[in-house]
Amino acid sequence: MDPLTVIGIATTAFNTIKQGISTGKDIESMYGTMGKWMGSISDIKHMDKMNKNPPIFKKIFNGASIEQEAMDIFIAKKKAEEMEKELKSFISLVHGPSAWQELIRLQVQIRKDRQAQVYAQQEARQNLLNWVGIIFLVLLLFGAAGGILYLYMLDRGLV
What we know:
By secondary structure, this protein is an all-alpha fold. It is built from five helices and no strands. The protein has helices at residues 3-22, 31-52, 56-61, 63-95, 97-155. Helix 4 packs antiparallel against helix 5 (97-155). The termini are far apart.
């Protein structure tokens, strides 16, 4: 997903959480929404991490869009930080500081779950694509060099 879509999901979940807390719901009853928000925040942080060291083919073939994606990730990250700060203040004000610690525990668990599943799969898939691309380019280079050598030998009458 792109950063703007992810921050849109986070914003929707964030607004639902704020509305739920203001009507007196406890954090546990909004676990699904909290999970969606925290998952989106985690996705943004992961995008930021991956953007700092993009795969080689992304660097080569997507040069112009890397800057745009970096800017989108930066904006999404700042918005996520604002949401987190506002949510901390809101939850601490309504339910006390211990509620925020409870939320942090939930966030750590969700982040661990996502890293173990989603991010590991994404990184493995990206590494596989990188290696396939590198092997393809090496084979293409050897094929081109062999073709040039064959044409050279054919022109000299060696074949």
